[in-house]
Amino acid sequence: MDSFNAIVVERIQDQFACQIKQIRMEDLPAGEVTIRVAYSGINYKDAMACSPSGRVVRQYPMVPGIDLAGTVVASSDPRYREGDEVLVTSYELGTGHFGGFSAYTRVPADWVVPLPQGLTHREVMILGTAGLTAALSIHRMEQNGLRKEQGPMLVRGATGGVGSSSVSIARRSGL
After folding, report:
1. What is the predicted pLDDT for the residue at 136?
2. How far apart are CA 175 and CA 131, in angstroms?
3. Beta strand residue intervals within the chain, DSSP E
4. How far is CA 121 from CA 27, 54, 107, 143, in A?
5. What is the pLDDT at residue 174?
6. Tell me: the pLDDT tens digits for 74-87?
7. Rounded distance, CA 129 to CA 93, Å?
8. CB-side exposure of 143: number of CA atoms within 13 Å?
9. Can you give the pTM of this predicted structure?
10. How far apart are CA 92 and CA 79, in angstroms?
């Protein structure tokens, strides 16, 4: 494979562009794990990255996409092998380091998480960064003693991504 598609955001002086471009493996940033991207969610931060006034991109050119799920195609880190199903979310992904809006990406191994058992690439990206944040938050509250018997749980910002995911997870877990 000589090249592959990626959404690339560029700013050169006062000119801004967001377009599908052909890039090569050599164009990818440094990192120990190279991933063939199966899915990447679309987040508010991604829309900001693709906007000339978004102010979230730290350097250009940039491939947006603050989360992704896919398959490891190469790794210099012993924790990950070719064929491993993984996900990556947050850190500098899509704002300071090429993100998931590409057929392939390369990231630091510490950012990579094995795909949770029972979830597909598609399902994990449907949940996305907001769902992961909500699940981790509720899990931590349960570790700290949150129980249904204590009364109703208040979710601020319940109409946003993290809030609506939190309401759904809490309801399904009986909280």
Report:
1. 85
2. 17
3. 4-12, 15-23, 33-39, 67-75, 85-89, 104-107, 112-114
4. 25, 28, 17, 27
5. 84
6. 999 999 999 999 99
7. 11
8. 6
9. 0.86
10. 21
Q: Is the dihedral of CA 90, 94, 97, 101 positive or negative?
A: positive
CA distance 52 to 102: 20
For the stretch 1-55, pLDDT in tens is 689 999 999 998 889 999 999 999 999 999 999 999 999 999 889 999 999 999 9
Cα distance between residue 21 and residue 107, in whole Å? 20
Whether 107 contacts 35, CB under 8 Å: yes
| Residues belonging to the chain | 175
- Mean confidence (pLDDT) of the chain: 93
Cis peptide preceding 61, ω within 30 of 0: yes
Higher pLDDT, 23 or 169: 23
Separation between Cα atoms, residue 22 and residue 118, nearest integer Å: 34
